[in-house]
Amino acid sequence: MSSAPSHSGPGRLSRYLPLVIWLVVISLASSDEFSASNTSRIIGPLVLWLFPHTSADTLATIHFMVRKLAHLSEYAVLGVLAARAFRGSTHPTLRRHWFLAAFLLVAIYSLLDEFHQIFVPSRTASFTDSLIDMTGGLAALLVLRRRWGSE
Known about the structure:
Blueprint: H1 9-29, H2 36-50, H3 56-87, H4 92-96, H5 98-117, H6 127-148
């Protein structure tokens, strides 16, 4: 990926639009539609179709793990999109400190996302989920920093 900033509207749009869309996706995933009771209606039957003799305890564990992996992966994607946007920024400070800026976005958004869930009756806010989110974002950012080196 080229780190040369694009000053044009389309260049900026191509950097920031995917990031904004992903922030909206995360917010939608924080709604009632993606509560544990709703996702269990999809994950449970799928697991039972693949493994018909799965016990109720094992099914509950799989459901829990899938939900936590979703946290990890959705924020890893956020980290990648933020890094991509900030690394190509026309603002020199943001471009130079893309790693920190991207991680701050991941951390702040994960905390705001969990705070939002306080107000959704079918959801529960969890600082642990924020830590999982931040871990996913940080892992992706560390991979990118290593891959991009000092370009």
